[in-house]
Design brief:
binds flavin-adenine dinucleotide, about 20% helix, alpha/beta, 18 strands, FAD/NAD(P)-binding domain, 2 domains, 5-stranded parallel sheet
């Protein structure tokens, strides 16, 4: 059995398989395409704080120690994942990329293709991440600003952004954090979609019943915090005309630089066509139409909150049960 991806989703499945009596390296292997030991959290900007409090940032059932109400940094999560991996006795095989998976004939064997060659196995768990590929709006191709344009995935801190006005597109958790940080060094405009309902899936799911941060422009602009920080909250950016960005209320600005905090796409391109084309795997808790192939950590194929610590763990428990019951 092979788990593809050694983030918290993959390790959650490893933990549940271990609890069911299977042994890492002997009964299942964990592979990851990243260079040795580098997890996705290593690439987040250094001042980032998680939305999930430490007490809820539980990986494979293991808690972060210390104040449960603090917002952990990506570095803490990176270390936590390393600790969890070692406590499970998992030795991730780094630098191995899955490139495809298919069922061999009508049997119960899967053929997993990797950059190191093909391997036959009965079960494959895809845990390659829902937030893997930066997503930018279509209009961005028409933008030509004098400074830089970066996605939040490549944002490191204020020192990276040239002097002058900055437009942060997207007012979810990342966009708000970045706008706040830049407000002490730059003049910032924060663009949010017009209504809460169209602002994407509510971030509330990340933190249980806490009030969401993902409000629309109208609600956001009423919050005095933004005015105090000197941040101009505007409506959705809908077009680019060279150096000018156009908003849905007709307003135009010419920022020096743009940061796109506009979300991500999943790393599911290596899954079989019939799995990708299935209308929705929601509610199936990570099972797919292909016997022996499971997906954890991606809402399209599992629970609505599958891309959070809590949701991935729930789906991991279900996937491990399915695997253990397979004839
Ligand atoms: C900015 C940001 C903030 C977030 N904050 C929170 C939060 O506060 N609380 C919360 O619950 N969630 C949060 N999330 C969501 C989620 O917890 C993270 O995205 C988390 O990294 C997902 O873990 P994962 O194991 O599913 O995927 P990843 O951590 O992305 O791990 C996937 C692994 O798969 C590997 N991989 C990818 N493709 C292949 C391949 N083809 N073959 C082999 N290996 C491959 C990658 O190298 C990677 O190591 C946040 C996400 C982002 C982007």
């Amino acid at each position: 059995m092979i788990i593809v991806g050694s983030g918290h989703a993959g390790l959650s499945v490893a933990a549940e398989l271990s609890r069911s009596g299977l042994q890492p390296q002997r009964d299942f292997a964990v592979i990851d395409s990243n260079p040795d030991g580098q997890r996705s959290w290593a690439f987040r900007w250094s001042s980032m704080e998680l939305l999930t409090e430490a007490g809820r940032s539980t990986v494979a059932g293991q808690h972060l120690t210390g104040d449960p109400y603090r917002r952990p940094s990506p570095r803490e999560i990176e270390q936590h994942l390393l600790d969890v991996e070692s406590s499970l006795g998992v030795t991730t095989m780094w630098g191995i990329r899955a490139t495809g998976v298919e069922r061999l004939g009508d049997g119960s064997t899967l053929l997993l293709s990797t950059n190191e060659g093909p391997v036959q196995t009965r079960n494959v768990v895809c845990a390659t991440g829902a937030a893997a590929r930066p997503r930018t709006p279509g209009w961005a191709v028409g933008a030509a600003v004098p400074g830089i344009m970066v996605h939040s995935a490549d944002y490191h801190g204020p020192g990276q952004i040239p002097r002058g006005d900055v437009l942060v597109v997207g007012a979810g958790h990342s966009g708000q954090q970045i706008a706040r940080e830049l407000s002490s060094t730059h003049r910032v405009t924060l663009s949010s979609r017009p209504t809460y309902a169209s602002a994407g899936r509510p971030i509330r799911r990340l933190v249980g019943r806490r009030r969401t941060d993902a409000r629309g422009a109208a609600a956001l602009s009423l919050d005095p915090e933004w005015a105090q920080l000197g941040i101009d909250v505007v409506s959705a950016a809908v077009a680019a005309d060279g150096a000018h960005i156009v908003f849905d209320d007709g307003r135009r600005i010419a920022p020096q630089s743009i940061i796109f905090a506009t979300g991500y796409r999943p790393a599911d391109g290596w899954l079989p066509r019939r799995v990708l084309d299935a209308t929705s795997g929601r509610g199936k808790r990570g099972t797919t139409g292909v016997p022996g192939l499971f997906v954890v950590g991606m809402p399209t194929y599992g629970s609505r909150d599958a891309d959070t610590f809590a949701g991935a763990r729930r789906d991991a428990i279900s996937i491990a049960r399915h695997i253990m019951k397979r004839p």
